[in-house]
Write a structure and sequence with these properties.
The chain has 326 residues and is α/β, with parallel strands linked by helices. It has two domains: 2-176, Rossmann fold, CATH 3.40.50.720; 180-315, N-(1-d-carboxylethyl)-l-norvaline Dehydrogenase, domain 2. Helix content is 45%, strand content 21%. Strands 1, 2, 3, 4, 5, 6, 7, 8, 9 and 10 form a ten-stranded mixed β-sheet that branches. The chain is globular and about 50 Å long. The two termini are 27 Å apart. 45% of the residues are buried.
């Protein structure tokens, strides 16, 4: 099976590395020092599930060096989705599936406008992995993919990809209700990202303070209400599942958006709390907690000037749990 990883960061590097090690023909699309390291030294995964070294991998900056593939794992940040969707056109053949693995619920529509809806499958990644240095992915927790056709059918292309994932040794689910899966994660992540970022605090601080925990619960209820108002049949247990996640995560666990905030990077805020507000307005659902989060963090959406970056990083909580969670 021919697979291309569009955006070889922590998510794409981890799953792509596992797939390549199991025998799949994987091409990695990357940039800068990371691309140079991949070409020179290959890819290394440091992981509690077993370390992995691939001395040689096919890595490029240009998708047209690869040509059509069976599966594209589309793992760029939301603010790069439109640009990256245009770039992957050379990878899309007659039966190619582009599996979107973005945070939020809007990537499917953006990518579909470029490559066509029949070529797009929804996807959800649960993994804590980062580029710890060029060519090296450090994985600390979780390694699961959920993916499915938008119409719920079990297509041969995704059945075959599911087999490849099983051979690679990570958890994979071929879903027949991918929209529900996307919104289930969005209900968790929009709140986890927004609350940890706006308080500059890990999850343990939020669950230990009654007022912050109540705020977190209210934000969850807002996202769930928006999803249901838009016709997504989110199950009644979704809130219980979110609270279990809040309870089970390590005390110092933090979101990738808090990590980006601490490092002065661009934020995915417009597609997380910002999207809850925007979609809520369209559906007639009030979202005051997410509106507060989106408003207070607005000055940081584009990243910070370098002179402010160092001060924020020094003051921020440094997570010892290993890496940000998406």
């Amino acid at each position: 099976m021919r697979i291309a990883i569009m955006g070889t960061g922590g998510v794409g590097g981890y799953f792509g590395g596992r797939l390549a090690a199991s025998g799949a023909e994987v091409s990695f699309i990357a940039r800068g020092a990371h691309l140079t390291a991949l070409r020179t030294h290959g890819l290394r995964l440091d992981s509690p599930r077993g370390n992995l070294v691939l001395p040689r991998v096919h890595a490029t900056e240009h998708p047209d060096d690869i040509g059509p593939v069976d599966i594209v794992l589309f793992t760029v940040k939301m603010y790069d989705v439109e640009r990256a969707a245009l770039a992957i056109v050379p990878l899309v053949g007659p039966d190619t599936a582009v599996i979107t693995l973005q945070n939020g619920v809007e990537a499917v529509d953006v990518v579909s406008e470029v490559v066509g809806r029949p070529h797009v499958a929804g996807g959800v990644a649960y993994v804590a992995a980062v580029i710890s240095e060029p060519g090296i992915i450090t994985h600390t927790a979780l390694d699961a993919l959920i993916f499915g056709e938008l119409d719920g059918r079990r297509s041969e292309r995704l059945v075959e990809f599911h087999r490849a994932c099983a051979a690679a040794g990570f958890e994979a689910t071929l879903s027949e209700r991918i929209e529900v899966d996307l919104w289930s994660k969005f209900s968790r992540l929009s709140v986890f990202s927004g609350m940890t970022a706006v308080t500059r605090s890990p999850i343990g601080v939020l669950r230990s303070d009654p007022d912050l925990l109540a705020m977190l619960k209210a934000a969850c209820e807002e996202t769930i209400a928006v999803g249901r108002a838009r016709g997504v049949p989110l199950p009644g247990v979704v809130m219980d599942e979110i609270l279990k996640m809040v309870h089970d995560l390590p005390h110092l666990a933090k979101s990738s958006m808090l990590e980006d905030l601490e490092r002065g990077r661009r934020l995915e805020l417009p597609w997380l709390s910002g999207a809850v507000v925007r979609l809520g307005e369209e559906s007639g659902v009030a979202t005051p907690i997410h509106r507060f989060i989106a408003t207070v963090l607005k000055p940081y959406v584009g990243g910070l000037p370098e002179r402010h970056h160092d001060a924020l990083s020094t003051a921020s909580v440094q997570g010892a749990a290993g890496g940000p969670i998406d």
